[in-house]
Design goal:
Strand content: 5-15%
Number of strands: 5
Shape: extended
Structural class: alpha+beta
Number of helices: 7
Oligomer: single chain
Amino acid sequence: MSKSVARLKSMKKVADKIDHSSKLRTDIPAGMAAPGPPLGPMLGQRNINVAAFCKDFNERTANIKQGIPLPTRVKVNPDRSYNLVIHQPPATYFLKQAAGINRGAMEPVRETSGKITLKHLYEIAQIKSQDPTLDWKPLKDICTMLIATARTCGIEVVKELDPKEYGEFLNQRKATIEEQKKLLQEKREAKMLRTA
């Protein structure tokens, strides 16, 4: 009996503790973390000091332009401390900025919302390669991933881009966006009439 008890005690010492703490994954605008909803309740559920977290996050993102969405990972420790990991902005943000557009296409394969060059794509891939989730991937794979993301946003990747032609394209695109917004508004109003 005593030998089995001794074995159990030695096994307890060898076995590592399993971490069951939850990880919080959310996008927070740079320099704009506030204790109000939706961030405050998410942190409160995990017993994190909300004011201290917001202050820490805003200090770390002080050198980044305000309002840029930053994917954030928070791991809560048993002593109520936390490990904060801030990633680079999402690929869609960089692609839309490079294309000079605010929103992607409503029907990505059928319509083109913007265009970027391969040089833009390569520069975005270099920035995204700094992310902890992508640091082990080769640059070629990151570029392939970005091309797929650009396609889902309706952004066309081209070798060269003429500024005058692209300016005309963006002006035509503004008219198309206005038409799409009117159609959406009409659909909403029709739905409201049906439910009323």
